[in-house]
Write a structure and sequence with these properties.
The protein has 107 residues and is an all-alpha fold. It contains four helices and no strands. The longest helix has 70 residues.
């Protein structure tokens, strides 16, 4: 998550790190609360078999959404690679040795 914040242009500071960490903890706690709440409501209203089916369908839908996102990211990465560009810009150029030495040769 920290890499995403830096890629988005946010500074790498302690405040940003603590905000990302707290977001992670809140999401984990909310997931535990909502999961047990929705599961118990489904069990009470629908019974065990249908309640389990609802939870299974919700989890299956989540897996499909995440898989679709991963496939989309992979296809976008391949398109960028075919065009010869990347997300890392100057860092990639420096790693490949393109233009980095001339910049620091005067030092």
């Amino acid at each position: 998550m920290m890499k995403s914040t830096v890629d988005a242009g946010l500074p790498e500071s302690e405040q940003i790190k603590s905000m990302v960490s707290s977001l992670w903890v809140v999401a984990d706690c909310a997931g535990g609360f909502l999961g047990s709440s929705v599961g118990s409501i489904a069990f009470d209203m629908l019974g065990f078999r249908r309640g389990t089916l609802v939870i299974t369908l919700a989890m299956g839908g989540t897996v499909i959404v995440i898989a679709g996102y991963c496939v989309q990211r992979r296809l976008a990465w391949r398109r960028r690679e075919n065009r010869g560009t990347s997300d890392r810009g100057e860092q990639t150029q420096l790693l490949r040795g393109e233009g980095g030495r001339e910049k620091y040769a005067a030092l």
